[in-house]
Amino acid sequence: NQRQPAITGIPGVDLPVLQAYQSVSERVYTVDGFVDTDGTIVGAAACAKILQFPRRSGPGLCFASAPLEPELVDGLERLCRAGGYRGVFDAEFVVSGQDKLLIDVNPRFYNHMAFEVDRSLPLPWLAYLAAAGDEAALRRAAQRLAPTRAGADAGPERIYVHRFPAFVQLAAQRVFGRMTREEVRGW
Fold it and tell me: Which of 128, 158, 159, 125 minimizes the C-alpha distance to 144?
């Protein structure tokens, strides 16, 4: 029962991470974006995950556009720089009162990326340019993006739905009495 030595340079990385439980609504605030080779977030968008499977703790089925909060982008940029991360990310926050608490950072492509692409944030294209090593093209593409930290305006309200899984989720909720007919119609 001897403990394995820590990975060199990262003391404690071999230890479990404990996270406080937060009782919150089903809505999760999400910041999605791209970190360039200098560690700068060159494009980001925000949305709210408003329906999940399973309910209140799972992958998103329905998302709504939301204003981007510049201070969260700044914090994510510091986190990515400290970890040396470059590329696409999806960061999720639960809302507790006035606070947004970071619960998850996915440093990869994710299931609702098409929503950001539809809102003029070409994350796969930026990832391709970075992977191809075309720094000049990556800089040009980043310059065409809306300013990441402008914040307040999310543009026109948009909704993104994973239709089939959302339909299955709502039907199951109705069949098992977890949603009323009116709630299902509302969705």
Answer: 125
